[in-house]
Every structure is written in structure tokens, then in C-alpha cells.
Amino acid sequence: MNPLAPLLARYPVLVLDGALATELERRGCDLHDPLWSAKVLIEAPDLIQQVHQDYFEAGADCAITASYQASVEGFMQRGLSRSEALDLICRSARLAMEARDAFWQEPSNRPGRPRPLVAASVGPYGAFLADGSEYRGDYGLSEAELMDFHRPRMAALLEAGVDLLACETIPCFSEARALVRLLAEFPNASAWFSFSARDEAYLWHGEPLAECAAWLDGQPQVVAVGVNCTAPRYLPALIEAARAVTRKPIVVYPNSGETYDPERRLWSGVSDAETFASEARRWYASGARLIGGCCRTTPDHIRSISAWARSLPPECFT
Fold it and tell me: What is the value of pTM for the model shown?
């Protein structure tokens, strides 16, 4: 099943949500913890649901769940049982779906937009390590070992009833191959694949994005391909590289434009919502069809993107 296809047949752009973890920090959460945003699933799940709600109200057509850094191993290292860990992973899906359903119950929220989707975040193995290796991809694991790590989370998220998976911030080709092989164990599931890039052509691990996108083009359960957690200035070239080798829709949700130091866990620079939305127009012109924000973007960024996206006439994409 491809939940994106009917929506992309009706709308020029599907607007994704923005950052979750940095938005939780902006609202007072201390995420200096190996669990990062997954910590809030334990401590303040209602706040996660409120962030999802705020993004829907800002115009997001798709929420990405708080499961990026949620893993069985990570929760068990915190002292939770395996069943408790799996329940927290399912909770991340329920929070987003409940926020979506509450939003859609209000008739005034429906005109001019689709019923929003919920995409379950499947973050990279490096996120579990919490040492910045999701920006390197140098895990030293086989594809089979990566499949074993991702399997329980993927199964729990799909069982919870999400619309699709967001295999995101992938830094290396080997992890993408492992996730596609694992996806085949769930034949009714679909996923988008979104890589993190170090420049205008290459993943953090060093493989060309075009090579990965070309391979993913032949994978039927993959419903979109693109980049996230990447500097906005690299996106036009990356989008064009992917478009040249795949017929799948292009998904992009970059960082705000600020710069992150993964060792010090600090951000520098500035970003504003209107500039971000102006750049989103360039990404659309380059060929992106799913557009949102990653680290340091806020509901204001998504509101600005949505205001532009809703103004596009149908002839822009027919």
C-alpha cells in the first residue's frame, strides 16, 4: 500500500511537520540524555502530543512520531523491561495518531487539505549510540546485525497502525539496504527513505546520494526518497541528483540553516520562518513533493511553508 500516491495526485505539495526534539527543548525539556527525545515519552508524553497538535494546526499534512531515538536496547539500558520498551515505542505512534484524529474531528480543519498521515520515525542505529555516529555511519555492523536492531521497533510501530514508516537521517548505504531487506518482512508496509548528507552530493559516510536513490528506485515498498537533517543550501543539487535516477517522489526536510556541533551538542547561527519558506519554493522548483523541516524548525516554519503550498494551483503539477 502506498498512502502517499492518492494525496500526491491531488495536491502539489505535502507539507511535513518540523522538528520534534529541538521543539521539545524550546518548550523546556532537558534532552541531554542518551535517549534524547525518547526520554520525553517516559516523562511528558502529553507534551509530545501537544507538539504534534501544534504542527497539524500550523498546516502539516504528516506527523513524524517521537520514535527516532526510541529502541528496545536504549530503553532496556535505562532499566525498563523489553515489554515496557515496546509499549513506549507504540506510545510514540499512539500520541501522533491521537493528535491527528482529534485535529481531524473538527470540521473547520478539513477544507483544502487531506486527512493528515502519521509516519513512524525509524532513526539510524547511530542515534541509539548517542555519540554522533549518525553523522558518520561508521558502525562496523553487518546488514543482518542492523536488521536485528531495527526489527522490534519496526514491528511495534507497524502493529500500532501508522500509515507508513519514515526511515530517516540515514548516513550510509548499508543501513538503507538493511532497512529495505527488513521491510520485506512486512509486505503490507511502505516507507520513505531519507538520507543525511554532508554536502551537495554525498552521504555522511561517503556514498553518492544518486547511487542510493537509483537502487531504491527499484524497491516497491519504498514510496519516496530524499534527504533530511541536512543544511538547506545543499538541497537543490541533492534533489536534482535524486530526480535524475528515480521516479519516486522526492522528500526533503532539512535543518533550519543553523549549524550543529554533535560533540558539544550546540547550535549556532540564525534562521527565520519566512526565509525557510522562500527556500522551500526552490526545493519544489527542483522537484521535491514532500517538504518539511528537521532540527530547529518550529510550527512557524511549517506555517509559512503551508501558506505557500496551499496557494499553488493544480496546474503546477499536472
Answer: 0.95
